Structures are given as C-alpha cells and as structure tokens.
Amino acid sequence: MTAPGPGGPPPAEPSDAAFRLQRVLQRRPVVTWAVAALIVATSLLAFVLPDEALALRLAKVNRRILAGEWWRLLTVALVHGSLLHLFFNAYALLSLGGLVERLYGRARFGLLLVVGTAAATVASLVWTPAPAVGASGGIFALVGALLVLGLRRRSALPDFVRRKLLRDMAWIAAVNLALGATIPYVDNAAHVGGLAAGIALGALLGPAPEVRRLSRPGSPAGGAGP
Q1: What percent of the chain stands above pLDDT 90?
Q2: DSSP character for 77?
Q3: Rounded distance, CA 99 to CA 139, Å?
Q4: In whole angstroms, what is the distance from residue 9 CA to residue 2 CA?
Q5: Confidence grade of residue 213 (pLDDT, cut at 50, 70, 90)
Q6: Given 43, 85, 124, 191, which residue is catalytic?
Q7: What DSSP string runs through 26-59?
Q8: DSSP string, 118-157
Q9: CA distance to 28, 70, 172, per residue, from 179 (Å)
Q10: Phi, psi at 210, each rounded to 5°
C-alpha cells in the first residue's frame, strides 16, 4: 500500500493486468536476435567476398526473379549496400523487432517479417527496375503492424509503449526514407510495399492472445509504466 502524498491522494498502483503486460514486454526477443545475427553475418560475409559474389546471388534482381529464382524475394534482406546501411537496418530490427515479437508473439512476428519482406520485394520488382538489397522492406512491415496495434489499442497500452511506438516508428521511417533517397540499391517502393503488407497483416492477425486479453479497451493497463 502506498502512503498518501502531501496534499493529494496516493498515486495509482499498477493493476494485475498492467503488471502482467509489463512482464510480457520484458521477455527476451530471441527470434529477433537470431534474425539480426543472421543478417549481420551474411552481410559482412558478402562485403569481404570478391566480386560481390554473395550479394549478387541474394539481391533483388528483376530478371533473375522472373526467371524463377524466387528465393530472392526473401534473401534480399540478408545483404546490404554499405556498412552504414547495415548498421541502421540492424538497429531498426533490434529496436522494433523486439517490440513486435513481444506484442504479436514469435510466430506472428516471423510471419510478419517473411510476408512483409516478400511483399516489399514484389513492390520493388513492379516499380523499380534496378537491383536492390536490404532488410528495410521487412522492417517497414513491422512499422505497419505496430501502427495498427497502436491505433486499435491506443488507450489500453501502457504510456511507455505508446511513446516508444511513436518515437521509434517516426525515427526509423525517416532514416530509411532518407537512405532510400541517397544510397544506391535502396528502394523506397519496397518500403511502401512492406508498410502496406504490415498494416494489412497486422490488422488480420492481431496481437498475441495474451496481449489481446491484457490490453482490451477499458483495461486498466494503460497507466502502467516500466
């Protein structure tokens, strides 16, 4: 029990639902870490191999995809155009991916990342003839999924989650759009395709059952903090 402060009622204590939701948000995002490690390792290997052999094998190249190399719809995320490009995408994945994995669950997170990456590559295939590399299409799918969750359950999510959603999504969207305008092989058509896929799939799937239950509209979890 918290003692009343001078001149006012005692501060509200976190409800059981708020406490349990906070515990969910503290879980280790092991799938995010594994995916980020794979992307960093593959990208670094591609940088050191001669003649860009690995990058050319995995990148989005329209004629190769249309010839049947469909794996490029996903492997495009494993290679990057520069160390700066890799750094920003790895940081964005670790920051947003961990939150998506906790809120949507591991299976939904994996589906969002895979479908979002494929949709982003398809959008690039349709609108961008140049080759492209990078994980940002899938990352924008995570942005879209978080946007859906933030809009649908805004009043029920803890304050610190709402702040993180807005801050991280705005920052990552701005950085990736800037990279798309300045760095070769980065493609804003893929960003838009990934974002649209994330919004659609996030609306279809919804958050993990536990998060859905703890963040129902009217739940007292909204005032919880870290």
Answers
A1: 50
A2: G
A3: 12
A4: 10
A5: confident
A6: 191
A7: TS--HHHHHHHHHHHHHHHHHHHSGGGHHHHHHS
A8: HHHHHHHHHH--S-B--SHHHHHHHHHHHHHHHHHSTTTS
A9: 29, 26, 10
A10: -65, -45
Interval 12-38 mean pLDDT: 80
What is the Cα–Cα distance from 193 to 140, expressed in whole angstroms? 8
What is the band of 118 on the pLDDT scale with cuts at 50, 70, 90? very high
Q: Which residue has the tokens 């969207």?
A: 173
Q: How far apart are CA 30 and CA 106, in angstroms?
A: 9
- Count of CB atoms within 10 A of residue 162's CB? 16
Task: Clarify whether 136 is annotated catalytic.
Answer: yes
Catalytic residue among 43, 95, 136, 219: 136
pTM: 0.82
- The Cβ-side half-sphere exposure at 86, using a 13 Å CA radius, reads 18
Known catalytic residue at 15: no
For 126-135, the pLDDT digits (tens) are 999 999 999 9
In tens, the pLDDT along 174-188 reads 776 666 566 665 678
Strand, coil or helix: 130: coil
In the predicted structure, residue 3 carries a pLDDT above the cut 60: no
Residue 162 backbone phi and psi in degrees, to 5: -60, -45
State yes or no: pLDDT of 142 exceeds 80: yes
